[in-house]
Amino acid sequence: MFEVFTLLGDWVSFQLFGLSPDTQIGAAVQFFVMDTTKIFFLLVVIIYVMGLLRAMISTERVRQIVAGRPQWLARSLAITLGGVTPFCSCSSVPLFIGFVEARIPIGITFAFLIASPMINEVAVVLLMTILGWEVALLYVLAGLVVAYIGSIVIEWFKPERWVESYVWDIKMRQQQELEANSGGFNQRHEFAWNEVKVIVKRIWHWLFIGIALGAAFHGFVPEAWVSTYLGDSSNWWSVPAAVLVGVPLYSNATGVIPLIEAMINKGVPIGTSLALMMSIAALSLPELLILRKVIKWQALGIFVGVLTVAFILVGYLFNFIQPNLPDLVS
Fold this sequence. Notes:
Elements: H1 3-16, H2 24-56, H3 59-66, H4 71-84, H5 89-101, H6 106-118, H7 121-131, H8 133-156, H9 175-182, H10 185-220, H11 223-229, H12 238-246, H13 253-265, H14 270-282, H15 285-292, H16 297-321
Helix pairs in contact: 1-2, 2-7, 2-10, 4-6, 4-8, 5-6, 5-15, 6-8, 7-8, 7-13, 8-16, 9-10, 10-13, 12-14, 12-16, 13-14, 14-16
């Protein structure tokens, strides 16, 4: 099915523009056209489907499922819900507030906040189609482990004391969602299509930036340079550097996938590449700015610190096991 996007990239680059596939610019343009059409197609389809699901299961229902459970079960449910609900890092924050307002333990709330942007259903599908199910599975497993253990570590610091006082009194109202929940198919379709328009409008330019960076990396960065400076997993600093670079970047898992694809194709180890992807997905600057309105600097610092250390450890682990998985990336 996805061969059509490769053929479209070939036609635009090598026939319409008359570029040569043996040149750097030809390879970069072909990659850009192919990935742009493929990613936007998947983006629209997946957001629409998840919007329909969200129109049938309200965020209030999500909070009710998590509340009142044993902590281990509630944490697992929060992570599972974070993985299957269509929220990016910024849109997860309102639900984070709703969890707090529902008196759900703050550690469990952070489990959702970590899992929701990391285990992004769009990113998982794109990883599967672009890099294979093995990479997608590794990424999902990493997100589950980081969300579970990371939320426990954050909970040790008793972050409830650093939640802004006004948050406890917030009552979330999502009238459109409630109307879609109680309406028929037409209202749910309208809600889902509106989700597509809102989300695509919010991130389309970051998708273009991510794809353009991936295309430039794919076409212009010499493989020998990549292999020398980033492709050697014995360079201890490569994983921390990838995480530190990713933390301040403003993007999401979907937008950064083309760059990750190009990095892996150039020989950058799986762990280094996924560490960058995780840090960008779960620690975006807009999310941190919004979170600062909800929690104080102490809790925000712990959140960033725990995830930074976790992503570094995960990167090292995947780089360590990659030699035992020679067929992981074709």
